[in-house]
Specification:
By secondary structure, the chain is an alpha+beta fold. It has one domain: SH3 type barrels. It has four helices and eleven strands, in the order ααββββββααβββββ. The protein has helices spanning 2-51, 55-62, 118-124, 140-150; strands spanning 73-76, 81-83, 85-89, 93-97, 103-107, 111-115, 153-158, 163-171, 175-180, 194-199, 203-208. The strands form two sheets. An eight-stranded antiparallel β-sheet has the order 3-4-5-11-7-8-9-10. The radius of gyration is 31 Å and the shape is elongated.
């Protein structure tokens, strides 16, 4: 009788220990599943955010980059590689300080690839809160028309590799007119050797000869 009573007294304690372990296991599983679900949601939210980031936004971040690493290298569709810092970004173009190449304007669609230090790759993937600079709303045509107004001599590098040097006489909605003459000379009728109409879509990059970098 004593043995039976002793065993019955021990039963609730044993069951209690097992139930506590069971609930502990359940809590652990739920916590692990919640963390996994939250991580998946965070990953999906990050993918969604990145899917909305435009290249021009990442280029804008490079304007203020710390220039402690290597210089960005822009590969253009004509095969040229420009080692240059970003000095301005418009709605569809980027202005570069190309060092010995001078001030350069490149349509975003003419960029084949950009080599960046890894820290700039990561930083540009999380653009700062939107810039409100007027230049960011200006299209490539607007920049070309400003060059017309300033009468700046230019060298236009076409996407297939040909180079046109001279002065842009006028710029339309999607093309420009350039009067051809020797680089470094003033546009005079006697110096002009020809005229070309050039669609913006065929332009790889434009060097502003002797001009300050665009900002």
């Amino acid at each position: 009788m004593d043995n039976f009573s002793s065993g019955r007294d021990q039963l609730p304690y044993a069951l209690g220990v097992r139930w506590e372990n069971f609930f502990d296991d359940l809590e652990g599983q739920l916590a692990a599943e919640w963390e996994a679900e939250r991580a998946a949601l965070d990953t999906e939210a990050e993918r969604l955010r990145l899917s909305r980031v435009a290249l021009r936004e990442r280029l804008s971040v490079l304007i203020d980059r710390e220039r402690t690493g290597g210089v960005p290298a822009f590969e253009i569709v004509d095969g040229t590689v420009l080692s240059a810092e970003v000095t301005g970004v418009g709605s569809d173009w980027v202005a570069l300080d190309g060092g010995t190449a001078g001030a350069v304007v490149v349509p975003v669609t003419a960029i084949a690839s950009i080599a960046l230090p890894h820290e700039d790759v990561l930083r540009s993937a999380r653009p700062a809160a939107g810039r409100t600079g007027l230049s960011e709303r200006m299209g490539f045509g607007f920049v070309m028309r400003d060059i017309v107004r300033r009468r700046i001599t230019v060298t236009v590098h076409l996407t297939h590799g040909r180079v046109l040097s001279g002065t842009i006489d006028r710029a339309g909605a999607e093309h420009l007119d350039i009067a051809l003459h020797e680089p470094g000379t003033v546009r005079r009728a006697a110096e002009v050797t020809g005229h070309r109409l050039v669609p913006f879509s065929s332009i790889g990059w434009v060097r502003l000869d002797g001009a300050a970098a665009l900002r």
